[in-house]
């Protein structure tokens, strides 16, 4: 910790950035454990009831799932692009990217909403109203599906709100500097939520097909 | 925006790779059921996550400590999975 | 220890952190880690009293074998209340949120934690969870036990399970925020020269605790969420009728709750290292081994959770694995006990109140730990599971160990936090009262458990009557011992003698600044040039 540079402000800014980054990665580790509990439940139940899980997977709309994955991957791309724009000080490009990220996030949620609604029609909601014909363990699959994608969707909503906040924060009228660090931190969160979905997709949509 | 896209072609390449992987795993449904499909889809998911983490989340650039923190969650999850499986597989 | 000269007289350049701004608003909106520590101190004291009242109710009920002083349903709600409050609203936060918050930044030479606003948020989130739990209790409570086992909790339990579980869920985030804050603080806010192996063991302990907090608590959150899903929506995650497994709940629950006991004990171990070195005027024996032992306990603690389910239909082979791993985790704890003993050897022992608590910890934790090894032995556990032996075991660790360390920390750092000294002879009497009362309360419970008395029962066979009466008598003595500090510490805040910056003659950066400290802790950033515990037994302590 010797050799403190002459430019104190730059040093402190870099310190702050590294600290925030470490904080966000720590938080992401907690999120891995949070979702992870359900992933473990999924793995254990699937190994016990592979047929029921295959039946469940076939009730999923593969087109919607694949489209949603593509939507999120593209949104991550624009988030990363926006991060680079912010670091170069390009406010206009940053805001353009953020708008695209938000729109793609909302598209994801819309497709998800459509999927949930169609499950209601088919009687696949676990609980007292379950009436889809299949193996007795099928509600287990559906419970895990709604719990995991539901929590994921909640994280998406929070992510979209965070991106909206970034748009406010990067507005030229209110603030002078481009919010480089907040963009990086929100970006980490956004990419992480994308990674969760990257795993949810094969786990729910691609079994037994 | 166009200039931004031009200057950051590496990101676009990563996106192309990600979408390719996605369609590869989705396309497996066209083939008859087989045992290799599940491990393959999982491997694809791992590859996509690795790309997102390394490039989009900039783990490739950042130092060791960040990578340790990133790996910690996954390792601890593995503990939960493995030792629980020890019970379920031996009942 | 560092290049700052010891303070001859407290600087009066600026008022200390307590007196800078006395408005309520400045307290409720503070970013100062010291004030947040004090806020937690008051909050936790309140919760401790509530949990103690529940315990008093239980011990009162157990005075009679027929349990006709309290009906069974009420008894079940009492022990649930006692467990939930004592574990999540006292023990888990205790040392980290009070002394971790107050002392850790100073101990590493920092002006504050890495994320001060997150720190304040942690307190408010804690309060929010507390409000939910208190509401559940006030409305009638829950009778599932603090462990919320399915299928009882998720299907037919009467009571406010959802409310209680929500409260615990919310409070879990308080733990996560605190742990996250400390991890980043220790990594990035150490003063110049404060390398990892110059850190006091208290800091190592809080750091390791924070790792557990951050990695284990989220699993509790998701487990309670799944249980609530099953209860609230009738969906069966743990329902055998659709292939669910009630034991899965226990796997997920104990994956958090076993490391949780290390969350509770590790900070206490850190405190004990500070106390024993200061009051025997000797460096710790085997500093690096102690630091690695702390990390080993934190790591290995994640591998043993199945020992709570030996008789719950877990497979025999998994049970064997968990039993072996549980034996393994006792090794670093034992190493610590040997090291503390060696630290005392040929030291210049001073038996002031903090030291009495530290010594009490070593003795009682050892007994608790050894009985833990007994419980980890599969065939013994078949007989002892669900009996008072288990209850005695964990109370020896939690109350005999952890709570003694908490009291020791309180008495050790009280002069630093308040700038006042308390009457040491009164404090020593309290410590001895607590020690005697504790043993009278809990030692009979080992015997009761061995003889087969089950836990969580309001009624018991008449042959256990005498031991239960002894236990309740002990609990009364224990209660007196805990009430006394409430009085003499409060008194000392207003009328105690000024403490000066370093009344114990301790090493550690926190003693190199005024008592109470100024807002930014140090007049200028300290520079560290040597390791911790640079004591010499020949030197007289003040």
Explain what you see.
The complex is a heterotrimer of chains A (209), B (91) and C (542). Chain A is mainly alpha-helical. Helix content of chain A is 79%, strand content 0%. The relative contact order of chain A is 0.17. In chain B, 30% of the residues are buried. The longest helix of chain B has 26 residues, at 64-89. The termini of chain B are far apart. Chain B is an all-alpha fold and 91 residues long. In chain B, α2 packs antiparallel against α3. Chain C is an all-alpha fold and 542 residues long. Chain C has helices at residues 24-28, 33-61, 72-91, 94-107, 116-138, 152-156, 161-188, 201-233, 246-280, 287-300, 316-344, 353-376, 378-384, 388-418, 424-451, 465-495. In chain C, α2 (33-61) packs antiparallel against α4 and α14 runs antiparallel to α15 (424-451). Chain C is globular and about 70 Å long. The mean pLDDT of chain C is 94. The chains are: A mainly alpha (209), B mainly alpha (91), C mainly alpha (542).
List the helices and strands and how they pair.
The complex is a heterotrimer of chains A (209), B (91) and C (542).
Chain A: H1 8-48, H2 50-58, H3 62-87, H4 91-122, H5 138-169, H6 180-205
Chain B: H1 2-7, H2 9-27, H3 37-56, H4 64-89
Chain C: H1 24-28, H2 33-61, H3 72-91, H4 94-107, H5 116-138, H6 152-156, H7 161-188, H8 201-233, H9 246-280, H10 287-300, H11 316-344, H12 353-376, H13 378-384, H14 388-418, H15 424-451, H16 465-495
Helix pairs in contact in C: 2-3, 2-4, 2-5, 2-16, 3-5, 4-7, 4-8, 4-14, 5-7, 7-8, 8-9, 8-10, 9-11, 9-12, 9-14, 10-11, 11-12, 12-14, 12-15, 14-15, 15-16
